[in-house]
Specification:
single chain; 2 domains
């Protein structure tokens, strides 16, 4: 009897799962469209961590911006798409983008600090439709096994086990994925030559403290302690032509089975729209 149950379970596995993963994924996603269509739609947004800088408006001939975007996240991220979309956004807003900072009225420097999947995203967000499909599969398997032997009750257990396993597998294959983009921004506006004074300070301090207590047989006790430290402070003042404003921008995109490659154009457009809206 056990051999018959194993053979039938293996047959269901080989026929319904192994050659049909793509079909099952399609069924899973179709069910998701019915239960929650937003999960199949690429969605996202942008959030500024600080208020927008109070940049002064200028006449059209001075609407010239210097743009530079770099990647210090350490990840293999191609910032070419991001740079191109931001440039297009600034140009659409009426700015001329230049590579010569000497002729620029504004500077936009972006530093990509993080790009990738948000590990805190709810991995079980798609379990509703997964449970529906898994339950259907489990019911079919349980019905077939139960009718092969009505006296053992193995059909119900096998159906529940297979249905739960199937739902979990489909949930993992078709999970909701959130891709985050975190960028530090330094936006500068040109002020009258030499009118901006910048002070940079570096303060490094090191402290070391160590203590030992040693108990010796006979009631005697020995102890020792050592302390050490050093500090260094540096300061430099410079006169500049630009007044700089610091900010951080966080953008996110979420969709079922979203990849970093698919999310980059979407997020680049959101970042471009946000940056072009900051300049006056």
């Amino acid at each position: 009897m056990m051999a018959k149950w194993c053979m039938l379970t293996g047959l269901i596995f080989s026929v319904a799962v192994l050659p049909g993963c793509r079909m099952m994924d399609s069924s899973y996603q179709s069910m998701t469209k019915l239960t929650n269509p937003d999960k199949m739609t690429l969605r996202g947004g942008v959030k500024w961590m600080n208020p927008h800088p109070p940049l002064r408006e200028v006449s059209p001939p001075k609407m010239v911006a210097y743009l530079r975007i770099r990647n210090s996240s350490g990840g293999p991220v191609d910032t070419g798409i991001l740079h191109a979309r931001v440039r297009e956004g600034l140009e659409s807003a009426g700015y001329r983008v230049t590579s010569n900072i000497e002729e620029a009225q504004f500077t936009v420097r972006g530093d990509l600090r993080f790009y990738g999947e948000n590990a805190s995203n709810d991995a079980g967000a798609g379990m509703l439709s997964g449970a529906v499909i898994g339950g259907v599969g489990g019911a079919v398997a349980g019905h077939a096994i139960r009718h092969s032997d009505t006296s053992t009750g193995l059909g119900a257990a096998a159906g529940a086990l297979l249905g739960g396993w199937f739902a979990n597998m489909m949930g993992n294959r078709n999970k909701m994925v959130e891709i985050d983009l975190v960028m530090d921004l330094r936006i500068g506006e040109r002020i009258e030559a030499g009118a901006v004074e910048t002070t940079r300070r570096s303060d490094d301090a090191v402290r070391v403290q160590h203590r030992d207590d040693v108990a010796v047989v006979g009631g005697a006790q020995e102890g020792g302690a050592a302390k050490g430290g050093s500090s260094e402070e540096q300061e430099v003042r410079t006169e500049e032509d630009f007044l700089y404003h610091q900010n951080r921008l966080v953008a996110h995109a979420v969709k079922m089975r979203l990849t970093a490659e698919e999310a980059m154009p979407f997020l680049s457009d959101r970042v471009a729209a946000a940056l072009s809206g900051v300049l006056p």
